[in-house]
Amino acid sequence: MAKTSTPRALADNEARAVLRMIRISPQKLNLVAQLIRGKKVATALADLEFSRKRIATDVRKCLQSAIANAENNHNLDVDDLVVAQAFVGKALVMKRFHARARGRGSRIMKPFANLTIVVREAAAKQA
């Protein structure tokens, strides 16, 4: 009595990559994720390449991983891929102590974030 296999969460023309425990606040990471949402993959890679944000290199690696998953695991055409979703979630928050004046202390929050990128194969336009 084997358990039935779980159906695939994504559609047949989609692939995703997840980057977990990134040492940046979700708010800052979301600014870079907004930069690539809805764009063609080639344009999104170019935008991330020339972005001045520090985290753009990690987002670029995650996008390249999603492209590789689409090509190798799901046999999708790389030229027709579009960034369907790029969403950010919270991970843990490290709490640290920083000494302040008059013997007081203040809490330093060091947040982590998760990034999920879903690429979708758009239908090729007929000429």
TrEMBL record:
Keywords: Ribonucleoprotein, Ribosomal protein, RNA-binding, rRNA-binding. GO terms for cellular component: ribosome. It comes from the Bacteria. Part of the 50S ribosomal subunit. The globular domain of the protein is located near the polypeptide exit tunnel on the outside of the subunit, while an extended beta-hairpin is found that lines the wall of the exit tunnel in the center of the 70S ribosome. Belongs to the universal ribosomal protein uL22 family. This is Large ribosomal subunit protein uL22.
